[in-house]
Design a protein that fits this description.
The complex is a heterodimer of chains A (about 220) and B (about 525). Chain A has helices at about 15-30, 70-85, 135-160, 175, 205-215; strands spanning about 5-15, 35, 35-40, 45, 50-55, 65, 95-105, 115-130, 185, 190-195. By secondary structure, chain A is an alpha+beta fold. The longest helix of chain A has 26 residues, at about 135-160. The chains are: A alpha+beta (about 220), B alpha+beta (about 525).
Chain lengths: ~220, ~525
Amino acid sequence: MNCRSEALEVSVEGRQVDEAMLALLHTILLHRSTGKFHYKKEGTYSIGTVGTQDIDCDFIDFSFVRVSSDELDRAIRKAVGEFKDAMGNGMDGMGQISLEFYQKKKSRWPFSDECIPWEVWSIKVNVVNLANEQERQICREKVGEKLGEKVINIVEVINRHEYLPKMPTQSEVDNVFDTSLKDVQPYLYKITFQITDTLGTSVSTTMRRLIKDTLAL
Amino acid sequence: MMDSDLSPQDKKDLDKFIKFFALKTVQVIVQARLGEKVCTRSLSSPTGSDWVCHNSFLFSQLINLPVPFFFPERVVDSSLIKLKYFHQFNLAIKDIPEVTHESKKALAGQLPGIERSMCVEISLKTSEGDSMELETWCLEMNEKCDKDIKVSYTVYNRMSLLLKSLLAITRVTPAYKLSRKQGHDYVILYRIYFGEVQLTGLGEGFQTVRVGVVGTPIGTITLSCAYRTNLAFMSTRQFERTAPIMGIIIDHFVERPFGNVGHMHPCNYRAPGEDEGAYNGVEDSQEVCTTSFSTSPPSQMGVPGKEGGVPQQVPVQPCHGAQAEHRRVSSCPPADHVPATPSSSGEDAETSSRSVGVKSGSPCGVLETTFTRKVGAFVNKPGTQVTTASLDLPFAAFAPRAYDLEENDPMVQPPESSATSSPLQGSLHSQGSGESGGPAQDDFVMVDFKPAFSKDDLLPMDLGTFYREFQNPPQLTSLTIDVSSQSMAEDLDSLPEKLAVYEKNIDEFDAFVDTLQ
């Protein structure tokens, strides 16, 4: 099974990074979260209900819907915060944050469980610096429109109804879903990021070059 | 593999899913246009009314056997079968009873199907009575069938996914921002109709966004939105429900700007601080669902014979299929379910006698009042004079009447005529009289101000006297024309003498300059 990969790109001002990332990540997770499964006797199970919540952005003319789960929101905010810190505050730069949905495949000892991604969303972020308030106001509106387009793109991909993991039995639910949250149950996911400096070189590439140069001496 | 024909149970389930999906679609769209943020809680523990999925359904996925969604006879607790609309499709979407009622009326016992689309039209109506369609959401079905799809699981889950997509997309179209700002100037209305999709009211260059599709054994359900991109206001509309108004007229004094909206329904919302809804016919049970329209006090309303009033017309809507009644809908605040109380006459409900959407703040009211423009200091334009005590001004009774206030003020031209009464709109222009400004103290109301302990034995004057005494201080002598002209002449005469003195002391000046270097 091949992992499905989707790429999105946005250009934002430094202070808009948080909200832009939250908007896109929450939109994806809204579609990739279900209610909590409650398994019962005789093999029956029931599914909880997913609530939704409107969020207004402060620095972007945009509103989005997220799952009503404070735990999930905290987890996403933490990841976005780390990404933004790595990007630097208000400086020009590029970075990429990835949301990967995966399944666990149990392995025998001594091997650890294998994580097999089935869908990866990569959001490339270009951070720009603006000179004056007028530009910021224009940027506020433009970024709002762009995020709207990205939401439409996300919905379009989601509704292609391509591969989704099968609904698991009770013993295998932790291999497919993140059951640690108490109110909702997203598919297993992880968020990673990669920072690129203004020269367009990733930090990892730079480190690789340094090591090579050192070994060559 | 499933047979090409659906089993009766599957057909029954599919019809049920399509019906509930259609109802939930309308709820999501209308609630997204109420102007409020929507918030529902996630419930981890399902109530006794949730759907129950039998585990044999999971087994069926493995061996591809057709399995009904639930086996009533095998469920431990039969009450688990009971449906609770709130939790349908495992999404917490509230049901506004009026919206459900209107949806069911529009459906009239039918289901969306091939060539039977269900549409939700969102439009904007201003306080002046102009209206504009903003978007049309269409739930359609085409003939492309997916006969292998499992109704009880896949179709259900994909419908749930599509509702989530709808939640996301409804916040992205331009009408969302407009609906969040609805209030005094305009309201957002919705209309549900069944049958042929009508997009002509969206103007040229409308855009379409597809929310998603769900394949079913009887056809593919498509949910899409066509939205207007040209938001420039058009005065004549296909669905014009008021007298044509050319251009945009800001008229603050129309009694019923939202009087008749035909069979459109407002997406009301409750603005903070508002007490009552603006429409007659709002049931008491819907009192919490107020509109955002503030009414001007009666004294500021009702200019007789004012043009632009909304006539009581019944619009003719050229659409097929059932239409929703003329009713008003109230929004439900979160966690509340307002009981549905349909009103019988929607037209009457819409034709409110209350004034809505009027921009208040114009300080005018009584027709016989003549308004003046106060002229600031050093302004040559003559102003006019307030001539009546009916103005809502402090101490209006003390306002100077028809006498010349400018005679002592050299900066203002003397008045040419006394103030005359005029219609309200005309009175905002200058009447040509010069009665404005004047001695500063005469513009103020003379009130004997005697605060306690204010008398000063040292200076035998009270505060009012002191104020008057020092309000117009004498001009500085150095700034008077005579003084300046005199000093200029003296300076010119004394110039040669001064030059002679400076030449005599030139050595001292050179020494001073040397010390500075």
